[in-house]
């Protein structure tokens, strides 16, 4: 068994559930219209929201297939960092408990994706 298989499965499940439900309950369109368009991305808010969610689905598939892991990771990490900057940072650290809608969830996903992308750790050349 691949040493990061469980992390890849868990990350894929999170990315899929965070995306697919919004496709059926108008959540993606609402995010585009009611948030992204309102903070300056109009008239592209809905388009960006769909691109973000579709990137999560593609990343989940790639994680499960164990293909193009770094590409999927870098794109997803970029989306998560932008989510921190635009949505979560102003809410603080906690998702629940000590606050609401904070950065801790995105932070953990970023670290998990880095662990998947670099299973042997980051190597720094001293040349």
UniProtKB/TrEMBL annotation:
Which keywords does UniProt give here?
Membrane, Transmembrane, Transmembrane helix
Q: Where in the cell is it found?
A: Membrane
Transmembrane ranges?
5-24, 44-64, 71-89, 105-122
Main location as per UniProt: membrane
Q: Does the keyword Protein transport apply?
A: no
The name on file for this protein is DoxX family protein
InterPro entries according to UniProt: DoxX
- Topologically, how does it sit relative to the membrane? Multi-pass membrane protein
Keyword Ribonucleoprotein (UniProt): no
Species: Flavobacterium humidisoli
């Amino acid at each position: 068994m691949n040493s990061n298989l469980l992390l890849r499965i868990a990350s894929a499940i999170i990315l899929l559930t965070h995306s697919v439900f919004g496709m059926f309950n108008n959540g993606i369109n609402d995010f585009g219209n009611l948030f992204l368009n309102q903070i300056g991305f109009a008239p592209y808010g809905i388009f960006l929201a769909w691109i973000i969610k579709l990137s999560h689905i593609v990343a989940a598939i790639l994680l499960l297939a164990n293909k193009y892991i770094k590409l999927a990771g870098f794109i997803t990490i970029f989306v998560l960092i932008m989510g921190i900057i635009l949505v979560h940072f102003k809410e603080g650290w906690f998702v629940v408990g000590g606050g609401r809608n904070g950065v801790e969830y995105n932070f953990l996903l970023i670290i998990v994706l880095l662990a998947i992308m670099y299973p042997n750790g980051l190597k720094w050349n001293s040349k």
